[in-house]
Amino acid sequence: MVPYLFQGDRFYFRGKTDRGSDYYIFDLTTGRLVKEDWTRRYGDSKEVYHLGEGVKVRILDKQSGRSLVLERDGGTTKITDSLSLSKEPVSVSPAGNAFIYTRESGADLDLHLYSVEDGRDRVLRKGVNKTAATGADWVRWSPGGEYFLMARAVYETKDAKKVMTLAGNTGVWSPTGARLAYVAGSRKVKEESDGDRPSLLGDRLVVLDMESGKSVTYYRTEPDQWIAGPAVWDPEGRYLAFPTGKKVKGDLFFGKIHVTDGKMFHYVENEQNLMPTRLNHLTLSSGSDYLSYTVNGILKLIDLRSLESRVYDVYSQVENQVQSEADYIRFGPDGVWLAREHEILYVSERMEKKQIYQTDRWIHGFYLSEKRNKLLLREGTENGEVLKLVRLQQSREAPE
């Protein structure tokens, strides 16, 4: 089972049976599983990218090469016959009005920006090393799609022009506007080509407002401290969470997790000195009521209102994680749902836990309905994963 999207109480995934692989939708409202090729609407990140109603770009793999075509109003427009063989050769604007694709150019790549509205295909950069276009977020779009970030270079989508180079690294867009949080250093930033993989080291967390052009320093470390990783926004774009630490014999270790709004609020959670790669799924809930993250398979959950905290073993869930977003924890206005090996727990405002579901199977992940009265679980069996729908005190099996 390959999860793709959970939206409007519907779970979109690709499943494999004895008869082969197909696309499915499970509806939490009706409890029905339907075999349906939803790529016609939402796309599939492996071969189809949805841009809007009736508009999509499709990757075509042939013996002669790899092509990219635009499908709209029943017609097809060929974009290129030299699409790169990279895992993520296309990045689509959140607005669906443009996309960036990578074209083979000898041993390197050319990066192109294609405007869907007027059909303009413009070259952004030529002769780029292939490592510059790796990973799911090699292009980072502002939430409205007006700007995009590649390494340290910020571009404006409408004219495909580079507007600035960040004086820092690890830029992350606010989910609610064209504001960019990045890590900067007080000393002069080493000049890098835009394709170089940036360093995570810096001693200042800065937020840049693209519309006003103003930058605000949200946090400055102590003299012997460094910011040890990229910042994470809360869903409303008000607060930022990030790790800090020290360099020991040339290696960076993080020892604190910070949450701040850049003004009056600043919370610090102390941790053991660990490699930044040990830190996973740093998350702020809606309203910044909760902070959560995992270290070595242990989930730490902090209620930022009461400052109470709890820890939970989620090693199995982290090991079975298949998406960038943690699918073993879900936040609600009054509490938190989290999965452990064989159970689902509900943690209330006072950090009181209650077991709401138990099974002999391994729980790989789960989804929460909009009304928060149903859970859809992915459970592991000897023959693969199955879905199970849990309704309050009763549950029933979904079709396998």
UniProtKB/TrEMBL annotation:
Domain of life: Bacteria
Gene3D superfamilies reported for this sequence: TolB, C-terminal domain
InterPro entries (alphabetical): 6-blade_b-propeller_TolB-like
Protein name, as recorded: WD40 repeat protein
Organism: Melghirimyces profundicolus
Lineage, top ranks: Bacteria, Bacillati, Bacillota, Bacilli, Bacillales
